[in-house]
Structure formats: C-alpha cells, structure tokens
Amino acid sequence: MTPDLIEALGRIVGPKWVRHRRAELTTYTMDGLPTRESYPGVVVMPADAGEVREVVRLLYPLSVPFVARGAGTGLSGGAVADGDAVLIALTRMNRILRVDPARRRAVLQPGVVNARLSEAVAPLGLHYVPDPSSQAACTVGGNVAENAGGPHCLKYGVTTNHVVELEVVLPDASVVRLGSPQGEPWGPDLVGLFVGSEGMFGIATEITVRLEPLPASVRTMLADFHTVRAASEAVSAVIAAGIVPAALEMMDRACVAAVEASIYAAGYPTDAAAVLLVELDGQDDAVEAEAATVVDILRARGARQVRSASSPADRARLWQGRKKAFGAMGRIAPDLAVQDAVVPRSALPDIMDRIAEIRDRHALSISNVFHAGDGNLHPNISFDRRDPAVAARVHEACREIMTACVEAGGSITGEHGVGSDKIGYMSLIFDAETLGAMRAVRRAFDPFESANPGKVVPLHACREWLAAPSAR
Amino acid sequence: MRDTIVTRLRALLGTAGVERDADGLPRATPDSPDALSLVCRLAHEEGWKIRIEGQGTWLPSDAPADLAVSTRALDQVITVSPADLVATVQAGAPLDGLRRRLADEGMWLALDPPGRPDRSLGSIVATATAGPLRHGFGPVRDHLLGCTVATGDGRLVKAGGKVVKNVAGYDLTKLQVGGFGGFGIIAELHLRLRALPRADVTLLARGARDNLTLAARRLIEAKVSPAALELLSPALAAEAEWVLAARFLGTDAAVQGEVGRLGTAGDLVWQPLPAERTAAFWGVVARGSLGGPITLRLGVLGDGVDEAMDLVAHDLDDGLLSAGPGSGMIRWTGEAPIERLRGVRRAAAGREIPMTIERAPWPLRRALGHFGAYREGVGQLVGRLRDSFDPGQCLSVALEGAE
C-alpha cells in the first residue's frame, strides 16, 4: 500500500483508525479458518456509514480492492484480504440505532454483536432469532454476509428470514436502500439476493431486522443413544410426526468427551454413542403435549434415557456444552477445522458412517456436533497444521467428506459460506452455466469485481471462461 | 413470420410440442427443461419476443410477443421425499394435483395462493403470490429451496439446491421468486414441505372493519399464533359483514390450546367453521381474487393495515379486499383506470408502502409495471441483473412502468 493511500485513508477516519504496520496487521491475517492466512495491505476502521462511503469512494477510481470484515469469526476464510487489498473492519460501527418494539423491528449498524442485540431487546420480551455458535462475538453484518444460521434456525429460519431492509454502499461508492421495514420488496427481492453474498456485492452499513417475541414456554431435553444411526433415525421420526422443534442438535461420542473434559462440562453421558438435544417452544399446553410425544418417539427409537432440563440454569448448562463444543475441542489439538456441509435428513445415518470411515482411513480425530434437524453437519477435525503430512490428510479428508455429502444430494455449506475454503468444491454442485450466472449477478453489483475478490465463484469454472479458448 | 417460427419450433420440439393460440400466435410447449432452454436459445438468436405462460389461470396471455412459451407440458412431479419433506416438481404442475399427491403421503405445502386451485407452481413462485397462510408460514420464498431456470438466451441455471439449509454461492432463487419471469422462465422447483397437520380449525368473527383490525392487533400482541389471520371484505368472504378469519393448524393439543386462547384474548365472538366447510371457505377466498381483471398487493407494517386499507377503499373500492394484520399484506382485486392506479401507487409510495401489480391486462402492466419506479440507484441494478439473465431482451415482461 502506498503511503499516499494510507494518508488519504487517515484523513477520512483519523490516522488512529488506520493500521498498516506488520505487527498491527497480524490480528487480521486469518478468520476462524486455520488454513488460510494472508496479510492485508492496510486495515481501515470507519466510524459510520459516511466514512465507509468515503473510503470506498477513495478506492474506486484507484481500482484498489477491499474486503469488509466484522469480528473475524467466519469459518470459510471469507474475511481475509490479500496484500493488494484494503481490509475495512466494521467493528466500530456497533450501535443499535433504533428499536421499535410494537412493530418488532430493530435497525443496527453492521458491527453490532449478535448476542448483544438479543440482550438489548430481552427486557421488551423480544429476541433476535438467528444464533450462530459464535454469537457472543460475531457481528450481525457478518451474519448478513454469510446468511448465518444457528441451532434455533430449524423452526425460525436463518438470517435471510430475519433481515428486511439494508442500506448498502456499492463498490462504486453509491448508496442504495434495499427492501422495506415491512419485508415487502420494492421490486425484485434484492435483500434476499444480497444476504449471503459474502461481502462481494457491497457493504451493508445499516441493517433492519425482525425481532420475535420470546416464547411463553421452553422445554429442553437430552436423549442419549447407543448408536449414531438410532439417533439420526429418531431425528427424522420427530419431524415426520409434524413437530418442528425450536432446535434439534446432535453430538457424537468424541464431541461429548471433549465437552465433558472441559470447563464447559454439561453432564452429557460420556458412554453414549450420540446425544440429542431437543428444544420445544411455544405455549405451555402445546409444549407439554409435544414434549410427551417427543419422549415417546425418542424412546421408541432406542433412547437409553431422556432427561428434561428442570430449571433455566439446567437448560443453560445443557446448551453451554453444545454452544461451547468448538471451544472444548480446542483442548485436543492446536488447530480445529470446523467443517460444514448439508445432507438430506434421510441421508444422515449413512453419511455419519461414511465420515467415520474417512476418519479411520486418514487416522484423524473427528468429532461431530451438528444441526441434525436440518441435516447440517459439522465434522470437526482436530490437528496440528505445523505438520504438513497431517495437514495434507486433513485437506484430503475434507474433500472426501464434501464429495460424499454432494453425492448424497446435499450441499458443501449450510451456514459457514464458501469464502476461499470451499471455492474448489463449488463445481461439485454447480455447473458452468450456473457459476457463470452467479458471476454475472456479482458484476451487476460490482462490475470491476473489487469487493472481496477471489472468493465464492471459481472464475476458471464459469461458462464464459470455458467458452473462450484463449483464456484457458 | 409466424409460419417460419412454427416450422423452426417444430424442428426443435416435434409436432406435439408446438401449437397456435386462438389468435394464431405460435405456442411452444416444451416438456423438459432442456427443450425449454432450446426454445429460448432459438428465440434469442432470432430476436423473437417471448410471452411466458403457465396454466393460463392467473396473468392474462396478452403480452405482445412473436411466440408464447408455455410450461403446461412441464407438469410432472419428479420426486417426493417424505423422509426429507422435499419435493421436486416441474413449473407447470398444478398446485391442486401436487397437494393431493402430497396428502396421500402425509405431507403438505404451506401455500394458499389467490386464484384457481389448479394454478401452476411456476406462476405462484414467479408472482410471489402468497395467501393468508403467509401469516404463520412466511412468504413464498420461504417454501422454495432451489429452482432451475431457462434464461432469456437459453442457458439453464440451477439455483439453490434440495436441502433445507444451503449457503453455497449467491442465492439466485430469490431473484426468481416474485421476478414475474423477468429473470428467466422457471422450469423446475425444489419445494420445502411440512408434515400434514393433524388438526385444521378455522374460526370466524364478524363485525365492522376497524373493530376487527384492532382486535387482530390485540391477538398478535397476546401471542395467539394462528397459521392464518386474515381480514376479509364481505364480498370476498361471501358474508354480510367484514370477517376476521383465524385458521389454526398443527397437532391437536396445540390447536386446542390456541383456540382456547383466541376465545379469551379479546371480546370478539368467534364461530368455528364446520370442518367440512373449511376447505370450501378458503377456496372461495382464493378464487375471489379473480373477481376482477386487476389484482394488486401492498406490503405494510402491521399497525399500518387500517390506514392502507382506507387508502385503497377510498381511491379504489373495498369490494374484494383482504389484509393480513400480522403479515401486513393487503390484496385488492377490481377494475380501475390506469391513472387512478398510478395515483394509488404514488400515494402508497408517499407512505413508504410498496405496491405490486400481481395481475392485470397488458396495457396496464406496460403502463405501470409490476413494480413501478424503484428507489434511487436500484433501477440501474435491476436493469443490469435483467441484462445478465436476458441479454437479448426476449422476455416480454413489464417490471417497470413505461414512463
């Protein structure tokens, strides 16, 4: 980065909010993905939407690419910038601008931490539903970029179902408002298109979200099983009975062992092959009746024991083990590859067998903790990336797991995004026409492809590239 | 030229795949996504304009074009997976046929769009016309996992997937839901299903419109959770007064509990519909939207329903008018001159309310556009998106107004 540019950025945001020395940049070389590391050219931290716009306006005529970043908790290498790019960190833009409890809406800056929003509106009897495991740190702006999910998305939907309006700074520094507070679009559904675009269409500087009333009654149950297959089949049986739990999560033996050996111990039975965490919410009578049905189904499908949280503290403890499972796995090895893939629910039992087979063949340590209700897997591989042989085996195992999930009719990512980690798998599920269409849509927002370049769409696999012999 | 088009289409699709409509316009009826894509590619190469048609029950078949492309032969239910609650269907498949097939296997698609029961799924998705169930089950987009679309120049784009959670790549399905065909012709859909609810109970309260709106707001604040909560004009409900209809779906216990709360949450007198009349009642409401040549929707915040209905009732009429006090969706059907509708759209825009023309004759669609004018900067974006899906501007779809 040239000194001129650094100085110009400093004039916009104040020199204190521009980081360019190598030591200062170290924090920003990675996100939650341990296998992608890169120093950005410079980091700039705007205070508000106006400063974001000025920064983008400065970069546009210079053809300098930029990468927007929230808390850096993403798991696909999406918020990592190369040396020729400016990293725009949005963490200073952390204000909740307005809350309208009667209309159940909140307007936020993108740097607001997910959990802080729910905490702020809890006294009003409301909450923001999408709850990724990183919710204590991740930002809503990052959630919008990735279309983040979370355990409670089974019943209530993912980020895209809860974002109604966006103010966006486009890569040419123009500002557009997409959607409306009521959720009815003015024209095509550009909010739906923008959510999940992984920072490649522009930067959301103001986000309007739906808030939902806190449920009157919540019942959290823990069931444990002799086999992963029996637990998987129980999941399908619950859904087939017409019950949509608020959450339906599974942890395998390796995951339970890691949790129980950590400070997050939740009292999960360590001798079980799998445990299911089932949460029902709604009105008291309905929850009561559904809970009885769920218990019957779980027992009929081979649950050894079904236990119900007896108090809010007990419930919090059961959830703590699940939500902090990734942290607990950190004790096993220096690095953790948190994988993310989806299969149709009916394929869960077979895919779990496949993952176990892949694990054994590559002699790796894999623990599974996942959103079983919607078939969203998280096989987590504990390893040490300093050992190149192990790192190569991890890479190969991830590729095999992705291929197996795609062959089962699934997807390469359910909630973590493609970023740079999954870009090599995109052509497993999308043909050249579709990848070409994605690129064209991106170019409608960003004709010069300067926002988060090099992510999501493998350009060499797009139709226009394949069709041009000179480009090969 | 029409004879040439027929000859060229027959070379692609065979004799059975080409016909002429009542006016002699060539109509292609491809029976596979690949055949659909070939027709679009040919039209693109020749610079022919395409009118998109489904089962012909919602939008009139009157867009000016060199040929019509109908999805009526793309009417197959490809797969239904009860274990995954996912179905793959072709775009021309009628909703009522799919509904019967799903019910046989204990499943259900939570959509109750306006119009005839045999509307094609492609039409429902392309126009994003949700019905009263939007209150409890969300808009049309929430029921679509993915789709295959033929672009205006004949590429087949496969957006999304068949799983309920998926963030691989940009979410191109969102452009197709409510895109009115401006971004391509939908060939195939992957739908999210639900287990067939055990209990299905509808209750009606009758009275003055503003009383019912107020009572509906109180129910929502009291966290009564119906699957549908819809305010219906007397003509639409085939009743003497305005009606607030509450529909509850789910397990027996959940429905019983909700019905009990409904009775105690306000001072309305609720009368349950006999079970055998429930389907017929909602069928009448859906068909009511065909009671005039124009249907439009407004999207408002819940507390703005009354004011927006006043606007419609004053500037148009309150004959066939419905509103979801929870979903904020207002739907009007009737007849009005272009200038009057332009005025309503302008007045609605002044209140930050988007108005979408869901159904109307071509001269009106052409003059006003399904969406009308966009907010600053959005028009250029939409224009570039349309260019990328239909570079030859073959698809005869009026998203924006003529001026």
Short overview:
Helices cover 35% and strands 20% of the residues of chain A.
What can you see in these coordinates?
The complex is a heterodimer of chains A (472) and B (403). In chain A, 35% of the residues lie in helices and 20% in strands. Chain A is an alpha+beta fold and 472 residues long. Chain A has a 7-stranded antiparallel β-sheet, with helices on both faces. In chain A, strand 8 (163-169) and strand 9 form a beta hairpin. Chain B is α+β, with helices and mostly antiparallel strands. Chain B is built from 14 helices and 19 strands. Chain B has helices at 2-13, 33-46, 95-104, 121-127, 134-137, 173-176, 209-221, 234-237, 252-264, 275-288, 305-315, 338-350, 362-368, 378-389; strands at 18-20, 26-28, 50-53, 67-70, 77-81, 86-90, 107-108, 144-150, 156-160, 185-192, 194-195, 199-207, 228-232, 242-250, 271-272, 294-299, 320-323, 329-334, 355-359. In chain B, a hairpin with a 5-residue loop joins strand 17 (320-323) and strand 18. Chain B is globular. The interface between A and B is large, with 92 and 82 residues.
Give the key terms.
heterodimer; A: 472 residues; alpha+beta; seven-stranded antiparallel sheet; five-stranded antiparallel sheet; 17 helices; 20% strand; globular; B: 403 residues; eight-stranded antiparallel sheet; 14 helices
Can you summarize the main beta sheet of chain A?
A: 7 strands, antiparallel
Beta-strand segment tally of chain A: 20
How would you describe the oligomerization state of the chains in this entry?
heterodimer
- What low-confidence regions of chain A span 5 or more consecutive residues with pLDDT below 50? none
Q: Which structural class do you get from the secondary structure elements of chain A?
A: alpha+beta
Strand content of chain B: 15-25%
Label the overall shape of chain A.
Answer: globular
**Helix content percent band of chain A:** 25-40%
**Strand element count of chain B:** 19
Count of DSSP-assigned helices of chain A: 17
Mean pLDDT of chain A, to the nearest integer, reads 94
User: Numbering strands along the chain, what is their spatial order in the largest sheet of chain A?
Assistant: 15-12-14-13-18-20-16
Radius of gyration of chain A: 22 Å
Task: Report the largest inter-chain contact.
Answer: A-B, 92 and 82 residues
Portion in beta strands of chain A = 15-25%
Number of H/I helices of chain B? 14
Query: From the alpha-carbon coordinates, what is the Rg of chain B to the nearest angstrom?
Result: 21 Å
